[in-house]
Structure formats: structure tokens, C-alpha cells
Amino acid sequence: MTDQRAADVRRYVQELQSTGHLSDPAWREAFARVPRHFFLPGFFERLPDGKWQPVGPADARYWDQVYSDTTLATQLDGHVSPDPDAWPLSGQATSSSTQPSLMALMLDALHLQGTERVLEIGTGTGYNAALLCHRLGDDHVTTVEVDKTVSDLAARHLVNAGHLPTLIVGDGERGWPGGAPYDRVIATVSVPRIPPAWLAQVRDGGSIVASLWRDLGGGPLVRLEVARNTAQGFFLPSYAGFMPVRSAGIAAQRLGAAVKQTGQSRTATVASSVLHEPDAGLWIALQVPGVTGLGFTPEGGVEQLWLFADDGSWAMVEDATVRVEQYGPRRLWDDVEAAYDQWAGAGNPTRDRLGLTVTVAGAHRFWLDVPGNLQWEEQPVSSH
To answer: To the nearest 10°, the Cα dihedral for 101, 154, 218, 383?
Structure first.
């Protein structure tokens, strides 16, 4: 490694430390010793017009961005790989190198001693798997990726970095029973519900660290302890998550139909900004599942927030006019306000006081402070 690259890595690790991450010396060493650029031969940078510009090592911006606390897109529409000579491209990012501080947060939440066997869901570039391999040894790491192209690229990156974990191409929600039982599961992709297969593949006393997918956000990152076919634990105090890329597209499609409909209007009792509050936002996102949001400002109008549900229901909130308009069988903003009122009535609890119990049968029960207190059970909601 050249002196310049070594300086880039030192700056990178210091940046992560300065933001409160890498307090564990073992992870600090892993981030310092595993070169991120091995896993990012190129990436996509979003331009002001919404298109993407490939960036490679020959570009001066490349090194600064690779060794910064930034998520970097590595694939568009499931089939495009970065080419530094390509023209700007359109598309949706479908694979990325996760923001390093989020990786550090989740890795630290695994509470590793150094001998555990870990199942990673979502190989991506392979960088997170390499960090695990550095800490635990290659034979203790299994990583599952649904996209064969992404997995093949990750395999080459890992070999270049000197690591040979077990790589599986398959559905991450099914885990990988061939390597079970595991001591830990870490998911670097969001899931709508903790899959029963993960519980079945983690030994008693093991744990799961994962991000729950909620279209309303909330950053629901949870750590669960596994015992007797049940996983239970608290949400982490930091906002963190992996937002599904398709959410904005679905909402944009529904907006076109909704603006032609007329709903019932009333005065809003809470502002749309509650969805972005770190504690109330998580409570609301968990209480109001299956709802997608989109910001929109009509020509000559004021900023609006639109919410959409699969049954055709929608709600439109204008903070400037303190007005909400709702349509369809489900009153979405009523649900948001009810959830917010419950959170406020409970004393504005912080997010790390919220807990989750998951059974091998698939039940998801949320609670405050202790199981059973202000408990509610979430039913599966169709994502289409």
C-alpha cells in the first residue's frame, strides 16, 4: 500500500472514531487492515439531474469518497457495473457499499468474542464479509447474496483481499441451513419481518442484528437474543437502516392517480415532521406498516407529504396550511396521529426502550420496556 493510500486509511479510521464508532480495538484494526478500495473498483455518483456518473480510481474524487463515511452505489437496475468511461446513466441503485459507520454500528452490536460463527445476509461488495473474516477467520463466516452477478464480483474482491469465506447464492430470508447452527446473524439488507429460518439456524444464546424495512422510515435497527425458538431484544439507540429502493417508485406511480381524486379534509393535529423524529418516527413506522410516503410540491402550491396504502387509500398533509386530506377505506393520517398520541402518552420514550419479540411461527410483538407493556402485534402486510 502506498504512503498516500495508507494516509487515506488512517484518515478514514480516524473519521469513524471521531463520530463515536470503532471504540472496539478489534474492529478498529479490521477497518484499518481491510482496504475498502479492494471492494470498490468503481462506483456511481449521482448527478444533480438524477443521472449517475461512474467514478473509477483514475478520478481524483475516487479516493476521497472510497475512504469516507459514505454509502456508494455499485450497481444500477440489477445489471449495470461501473465503467469509468461510460456516459452518465439513468436507473435505480440496486446494490451498494454500505455507509461504514452503519457497518461499524452493526458489527459492534454482534458482541463478538472472536470465536463465533456468523451468517451474513447480503454479501454486496464483500467488504463487510472481509471485516468479519479478519476478525473471526474465513471458516467462521458464511455470506448469502441473492444476485449471482453481485456474488461473483464479491468473490473476486474477497480473493484479492486474501479471504475465502463460504459464499452462497440464494434467498437470504431462507438463511443457509447447510452451515447451521450459527452464533450470530447479521443482515445488511432490510427485511419486512425477521424470517423464521434465521431463528431456526441460530443456536440458543446466539443473536440476530437486522434492519426492519418500513416504508415510513424510522431507522428500525434491532438486536435480538435467541432462546427456545424465540428471538427477543431492543432496538438500537441509533437511527439506521437500509431503505428499499423501490419505495419511491411505487409512491410516484400512486401519486398520479391520487391527485385526480378528492378526499375528506380536516385540520391536522400533528405535523408531517413527526415522521422524521428519531424516537416518535420509529414508533409511528412500526405502528403504521404498509404505508409509503412521498414529498411533493405542486406548481404554485406549498410542500405536501403524501402517504399511500395498497388498498388505494391515501393521505395528503400540508404543514403550511395545517390541513390533511384523506381518501379510501383506511384513514392513514388518523393512524399516524393515533400512533403519535400513544407515543406522547407513554412519556415520549426513546427508541432504545422499544422491544421486539419474534417467534419461530413468525409472530412479531412490539413492546415498551418489558414484554407485554403497551404491546401490539403486527400482522403481515402485502408489499404490493
So the answer is: 180
**Do the domain assignments include residue 258?**
yes
Predicted model pTM: 0.91
Answer whether residue 247 shows pLDDT above 50.
Answer: no
From the candidates 23, 68, 90, 96, which is the catalytic residue?
Answer: 96
What's the half-sphere exposure (Cβ side, CA atoms, 13 Å) at 50?
A: 3
Give the model's confidence band at 91: pLDDT under 50 very low, under 70 low, under 90 confident, else very high.
confident
CB 99 within 8 A of CB 132: no
- Provide DSSP, 18-67: HTT---SHHHHHHHHHS-GGGG-S-EEEE-TTS-EEEE-TTSHHHHHHHT
- Provide the pLDDT for residue 339: 97
Q: What is the domain count for the chain?
A: 1
Question: Residues 133-144: what's their mean pLDDT?
Answer: 98
Any catalytic annotation for residue 265?
A: no
Residue 62 lies in a domain: no
In-domain check, residue 301: yes
Structural domain for 257, as ranges: 247-345
**H or E element that contains 88:** none
Confidence (pLDDT) at 249:
56
